[in-house]
Specification:
By secondary structure, the chain is an all-alpha fold. It has helices at about 25-35, 50-55, 75-90, 95-100, 105-130, 135-160, 160-180, 190-215, 220-240, 245-265, 270-300, 305-325, 330-350.
Length: about 350
Amino acid sequence: MNTSGFPVALKGAGSLGNETDNFRGLTKQAVKAWQKSVGLKDDGVFGSESIAKALSDNSSPSSSLTETSNGTADDLIIASLRAEIANLEDQMATSQTSSYRTAEDKEAIEAIKKAISMIQDAEEQIEEAEDDGDNVSRPQKDLADAREDFYDAVDSYFKNSYEKATDLALDAYDGAQDAYADAGGETEEDEIKELIDEIEEMIEEAEDEIDEADDDGEDVDRAEDILDDAKDAFDEAEDAFDDEDYELAEELLEEVEDLINDAIDAIGENDDEDEADEKIDEAKDAIDEAEEEIEEAEDDGFDVDEAWDLLEEAEEELEKAEDEFDDEDYDKAIDYAEDAMDLAEEAIDAIED
């Protein structure tokens, strides 16, 4: 508006060189003035008729459809749509109005928001590439096509053609993403592909570590089972990637990474379990043996009060060992079982006349 003879403001926010994406009172007044000048109803609402008029005035290849400049019809459309989206989201947040917002309506809004964000990312990436002296003719063409689809999506939305608006907005997103990538930006697809390669390498390293442990005689049965689960999840992630469901692919790859770590942690786990089970049995035998000796000493008239106290502590440590064993923390179970055996031995030593 500022460059079309209808300034939003003469200074400060909204003035030439200080434009924003906000669509508020000053912008509305500028829109009304523009509408009146082109023979439209001057209501300040940048709806389908205003969009059509703005597009017809910017239809040449050298116009703002292929360039980014503050205050152009492009920016006005985006600012207006942002205001419309914010308004609709406020309505959807209330029970009184959410009932008449259809699923198709909401889907179209989300697709348009996604397209806006990608278009702006592409614009910034193209500017950066241009500043670096790169040839940006191809990404500029992709972006121009994306903008065309975006405007058509907006127009379809205001005509309540929500399904068409969604399809066009997604086309705009894809086109803007191509522009972003052509200008040197890393797309979501690129990021997930890199993550897939990293996770695949982690799986191979885990396999090598498990094989080496197996050669050393460690128990790797559970580790192999967990790694098999990781491989299954990895296959699902690759399928999601092929289906272009990058969000699901990323979630599955994070799950795979956790499973790989669990598999490595499980190397030799059964050996630890066996050792813990054996230590607990030894502690039980030690306590039983100490109890017999204390009872015999008590019958013979020995002072066994301290011995009974120590034996009670031994039984408490044994109980802790069994709890840790049930929780599969075998290292702690072993420690508690050994403490129980030491206390049982001390109990026997404490028997006095």
